[in-house]
């Protein structure tokens, strides 16, 4: 008798990783980033180990921070596939399909406009706040919502306590893994990396064991009404050029989307436009 395939998708960011609390740690080329990306791949590997211990037969890891080329490929657990590079159509969940059995988010952070270590949504440069159907939206709101539309449940999330409070409210059945407590925008009380990795490995294993019992959930249902506050008026000037957008303030843009994937693509376009104006 053949073994039933269990496919797990792990998206890894850097701001929610234990030991990361300063913007320099997320900037490619900075000396601080070299150390931070090793912490990032350490937590990625802990999640991969946990997924396989919990019964996964296939694991995909998506490098999902900034340029999305942070994880040293030769440091990643060789059992996992690695998605890297940007821009890419699916952004932080590129390649996620209905064939996966669960989504795990490692090293993620709180939403733009909320309290938390290095809190932002998609782009700290571009967005001061993103609301979906009136709800303050972070990256789990968007990408967990996209997964739910595919029929894939959000199984577990790791990051600071502020992120985990957001996830508790929006995805109450997802496992929350607190690896640090926010003391400010660039300050944290963190577990040691080894302790954080041990916790992630244990909790991801347990989440994957229960994946078959989990139904997808999402805080927002289509059609989606997005109201986006940009950080600069010039960014809103550019965003307003896109068809389907409505200017509702000096820095505010409104648009509609039929799916979370569509919303993510428009927001990604806004972020790329903002980057091009600097």
TrEMBL record:
Residues bound to Zn(2+) 2 are 13, 65, 109, 139
- Which InterPro entries is this protein grouped with? DppA_N (IPR027476), Peptidase_M55 (IPR007035), Peptidase_M55_sf (IPR036177)
What are the positions of the active site?
A: 120 (nucleophile)
Which residues are recorded as binding Zn(2+) 1?
13, 15
Any idea which GO molecular function terms this record carries?
metal ion binding
Ordered alphabetically, the record's keywords are: Metal-binding, Zinc
| Name this polypeptide is given | D-amino peptidase
Q: Which organism is it from?
A: Pseudoroseicyclus aestuarii
